[in-house]
Amino acid sequence: MSDKTIALFFTFLSLLPLSLYSQNKISGVVLDSETGVPIANVNVLLLPVHSGNTTNSDGYFELNFTKSGHYVLSVSRVGYTPIKRTIKLKVGTDYTQKFFLQKAIKKIEEVSIVGAGAEKRILNRVTVEPVSLKSATSVVSGKDMSRQGTVTLIDAMKYIPGALTETRGRKIKQFVSVRGQTYPYPTYSVDGIVQREFYETAFLLNTNTISEIKIDRSSSSLLKSLSPLTGVINVKTRQFNTPETDIYFKYGSLSTFETGIIHGASNEKINYTIGANIFGTNGPKERNGEERIGNFNGAFGWKINNRIKTSVKLFYVDGKRELTIPVYPSAEKLLTAKEHYKPLTTLLLASKTEFRSATKYSGELQINYLHKNPEYFIENTKTGDKNQYHELENEFTINQLNAWKMSETNVLRAGVLLNYWEAPDGKRYYHGNRADVYTWSGVLTNQQRLGKWLLDAGFRISQDYFNEWGGFAIEGSGGKFTKVKPITNEWQPPVWSALGGVTRTFEKMLSAHGNVSAGVISPRTGAITETGEQPENEKRTNLDLGLIKSFHNRVNITVSAFMVSRFNAIDYSGKTVELDNGDIVELYKNEDKRNYGIELDSHFSLTSWLQFFANATLMKGETKQKSEWEKDDELPLFIGNIGTMFTKSDFDFNAFLNYTGAYKNNRFVDKKYIQEYGKAPLGDFTNIDLTTGYKIGHSKNIRFYIEVKNLLNKKFQTVAGYPDYGTIVSGGVNLKL
């Protein structure tokens, strides 16, 4: 063998590994999702081969692979939410990837930072509420909703501090209240966009379209609420950083089911989400509780340039909902009323355009349209009488908010809102009486930083103009109600609210928060008293004090105290009147009330696979009777929640416990029962929910799970005559593509 041949042979041997393990390349760039700026020192890992690298100063990375197949790219960096992307690779082909990382916002960081970050947060999100309210703010994440097995928006809030969900009331299915403020209930916003009549839609909105819910329990929000001092529930809709499709199905007791699909993606300029869902149940046997409700949602966002971005969101709900027939001690007319909505048509269209000028100014233009067109049917099973109502409703809102950085430590915000609402045929109890109302509102807030102190103040005023308002002229009721005339072409008294707050940070991740607010609350649409008149405006004062402490970001504890003073409080009277058509109208009253208490909210991350939470609200309600304050027995003294979330390898187990103390009231209760026994007892129950799941698949993208709701099978009541359905067992599967 010649020397040349030997040289060629060894050259071939040296190249053989390269031919057997061809170094195909994956390259890409990692950018900040908000600014588009490249991110350095990001860890990029190719699984399961564990080939890894970090990005350079331009956000660029390169990885090699040697075999064809399915892989997972894991992208992570401290301070950002990690991303995992499943990709299919083929030998002989190079691939390019682009990632957009979102900054990870932890609750303790958001509430305790008082430095320059506070001003930046406002300029980035004009509708963010004052830091002084953070000790009274609860957050429910998308992961929380998944662990709890929630279906609707109302379901997702049952474990926040002081939450009380009233289930199976008439007409409106569910309400959630906090700190005993059962009327008026909190208002809603969607991605910071103010909603007016959304409380009738909340129990229909599916949680698979939601990434986060933020609840301002203090009732002192100004920027995301048209109705002041009633608290705000802000719903953040789901957005995908990378192409993803979720498919899910669940089925259980009472033929309860849920199925749907949601898909989304984004790049540096555009993001979109689209989904469809249907859920339903047959309800309790022979009690008219069948539901079949479909949801369709879509969202589109466009970053026009570094200073302007816009988005539009669509929610469409339709289907059928039967109103469950109550049991004794409900009034006889309710026991013999068979009611349903079909169709249950609701359309919400919301758009938002955000703009920023350098670092000194930012603004937000919101446009919101709500359309409802349900058909309501009622049959008296005793007499056979039937009635049908068309409840058309339209609402249009335009809201302009602005923020100016007046100095390095001061930010001023101002905004104006215009709302038009009409129900041409009236609604529910006052059907046949037109509602045509304009509302204007203005808000002004200021935030000033003084070292480790942060001061904030604000004022909102709103006023209604009635083109025509017949909400208090109920046709067919007989007696005093028929004599009430509609209001036409008349301004209503202005409604206002003001707040002041202070936040102070200390060493070792400790912050203190205080807030005081006062204002006037107008009665809800259609509220009437025994005399057929609108209740007087309520004057309310709120006080909140709280401490937030973090221990190495593993344990977060919030302790807060609150007081709510209500002069001429608008509340249920416990009395009803029967209309000629058989409907039962509940009446309101004005009286002085107050409630105060303390709250504890704690979260523990003991390990990466075991977390706990526990919260408790201890409160006392009082009502003024003949110049003396007496205990208000219509509020529970104690509400407590405990939860544990365990995730190890591919298995997860979650357990949640709620205890709601005893309370009572006369709502919907038979008059003979009241005469003999007094108010109907409610609350005083313990509820336990469990979920467990297991993941399979190449990238663990399939999860099978089992849920048990109301494990103890307690038929507890939060509204008299409407017991819980008892234990519901269901199973399902989630698939992520």
Features:
single chain, 737 residues, mainly beta, Immunoglobulin-like, Ferric Hydroxamate Uptake Protein, Chain A, domain 1, Maltoporin, Chain A, 5-stranded mixed beta sheet, 6 helices, 7% helix
Per the CATH scheme, the topology name of the largest domain is Maltoporin, Chain A
Percent helix: under 10%
Strand content: over 45%
Class by helix and strand content? mainly beta
Number of self-contained structural domains: 3
The oligomeric status of these chains comes to single chain
Low-confidence stretches: 5-22, 105-113, 473-479
Q: Mean of the pLDDT scores?
A: 85
Number of strands: 41
Mind summarizing the main beta sheet?
Answer: 22 strands, antiparallel, barrel
- Outline type: globular
What Rg, in angstroms, do the CA atoms define? 28 Å
**CATH architecture annotation name of the largest domain:** Beta Barrel
Enumerate how many helices there are, as a single number.
6
CATH class of the largest domain: Mainly Beta
Q: End-to-end distance, in Å?
A: 58 Å
Outline the structure in words:
This protein is mainly beta and 737 residues long. The protein has three domains: 17-101, Immunoglobulin-like; 111-232, Beta Complex (Ferric Hydroxamate Uptake Protein, Chain A, domain 1); 233-736, Beta Barrel (Maltoporin, Chain A), CATH 2.40.170.20. The protein is built from six helices and 41 strands. The strands form five sheets. It has a 22-stranded antiparallel barrel. The chain has a five-stranded mixed β-sheet with strand order 8-13-14-11-12. A hairpin with a 6-residue loop joins strand 5 (69-76) and strand 6 (83-89). 38% of the residues are buried. Mean pLDDT is 85; it is low at 5-22, 105-113 and 473-479.
